[in-house]
Amino acid sequence: MQSIRDLKANFSGPPPPAMSSGDAYLQGNIRMSLEDPELWRTFHEIGTEMIITKPGRRMFPHCKVNLSGLIPCAKYILLVDMVPEDGFRYKWNKEKWEVAGKAEPQPPCRTYLHPDSPAPGSHWMKQSISFLKLKLTNNTLDQHGHIILHSMHRYHPRFHIVQADDLFSVRWSVFQTFTFPETSFTAVTAYQNTKITKLKIDHNPFAKGFRDEGTTKKRRANKNPGDLDKKVKLSQMNREPEEDSPSDFCKSSFEGYEGDEAALQKRKEAEEIKEERYSPWSAEREHGNRNGSPPNAESRDVYNAEQLVPAPASYQPYRFHEYGKSPSPSSSVGSSASASGRSSFESRVPDVAVHEHESSKARTQEVGPSPCGPPQHLPGPQDYPAVLNVTSKPGVLGHHIYGPYGAEQPLGQWSGSGAAQYPPPHHLSADYATPAVHHGYPHGNVTEWSQYPLFSYSCW
DNA sequence: TCCACTCACACTTTTGAATAGG
DNA sequence: ACCTATTCAAAAGTGTGAGTGG
């Protein structure tokens, strides 16, 4: 079992004893596992698609995780954001996905804050944490705080845990990120793969009416005689699971990834891709196995866990690029600019990239997380000049709020997204590929932080 | 013509207020 | 008066299929 890597910040000074022990507990034991891994895997093997609509659409399966290893009485904030898997746009062509060109400019990157945040570790650990109400939209002007995605692009969710007493006092130094390869999906405005449609209908209670035994059959039959063909197709499809192995599913769905040879031939991973003929996602598993990752869910949840500092989707791939190449066909627009969350899964190299200034600040200003002790010094906004600075401009906390916390919890969304929401990947890449920059970021320079999409938008 | 997208629709589950009973 | 359980209507979440626009 892989232990959760330490996200230990580059603390500038010798840590107080309390902090030392706290670090181990805080940053070394947090464990996150994905609930319903089998369901996710079933979708994943076919090629998960998530509908995005203007008013916002929930995910299905929805993100649900279990947490352990938190300090019971310390408060944490849980967030989710969506990271592009690669730099491509896809199209569904003849029962398979194909690369259809470069990805469109990244939409305003938003982060979903779990409505229970902040809550004590005991709260997060006592039951599974559901992100049921997280919604995806393709409306770049969305005012509801939904996560904005591009249709026909691939994404995967990232789960972030931040120890913070409130939404103001985010402790960047104990920021931890987890991803699960099987949660990657293609955002679509209408389902492309009928097998995915069937899976959704079969498993989503709201779609019960579309199941074969449902009344919908009659409704559709009455509605349009032409539906007969589709119904026949559907019923045929419904029998497929018995006839087709999951491998067949994947093969039919994802040969396209390797089909666009012209687009892929320049990629280093081309050979690897061909090996993953059944699913682009299988590469993740493959790599996981290479790294000794057991296939079963119980252990996988651990292996899937990664820990990162607050990272923008746009630059994360670069960091991953440093650690390992991605097997994904999508993993290489150009060279460094690709990679994906799955790479993060593969690369077990501890990403301890932390803003030094931030870390030292946290170190100096916070008392170590003394589990359930007397009132810790949980710094308020005033304790974090850097954060306060942010409020003066679009930054970590200085943005508009959408959520249950009202005006007193300004962690809702950036008021000014602008260029910060479309950070030039290369620029960021360069920044983060350079350790000096990586660690040398003066945390007080919130402007830099504010470029990172992770906190560019929080919502409920 | 093709494809991505939007919208209205019928159906379902969920939610919350109103009511009844102990 | 208070609490709990039940009922019911409204709201919200689904995929479908027709229509639209580039």
Describe the protein.
The chain is an alpha+beta fold. The chain is globular. 33% of the residues lie in helices and 15% in strands. It contains 18 helices and 16 strands. α12 packs across α16 (425-433). The protein has helices at residues 17-28, 37-46, 121-126, 194-203, 216-223, 227-243, 246-259, 261-264, 270-275, 282-290, 297-304, 316-323, 341-346, 356-365, 385-391, 425-433, 435-440, 446-449; strands spanning 31-34, 49-51, 57-58, 64-68, 75-84, 88-92, 97-102, 111-113, 119-120, 129-130, 135-137, 147-148, 153-163, 176-179, 185-188, 458-459. The strands form four sheets. Strands 2, 5, 8, 9, 13, 14, 15 and 16 form an eight-stranded mixed β-sheet that branches. Strands 1-4-10 form a three-stranded antiparallel β-sheet. A three-stranded mixed β-sheet has the order 3-11-12, with no helix packed on it. The chain binds a DNA duplex (22 and 22 nucleotides) through β3, α4 and α5.
Can you give me a brief rundown of this structure?
With 460 residues, the protein is an alpha+beta fold.
How many strands? 16
Helix content: 25-40%
Structural class: alpha+beta
- Seen as an oligomer or otherwise, the chain set is single chain
Based on CA inertia axes, which overall geometry fits? globular
What's the overall average pLDDT, rounded? 56
Number of helices: 18
Main beta sheet = 8 strands, mixed
Low-confidence stretches: 1-27, 214-460
Q: Termini, distance in Å?
A: 34 Å
C-alpha Rg (nearest Å): 22 Å
Strand content: 5-15%
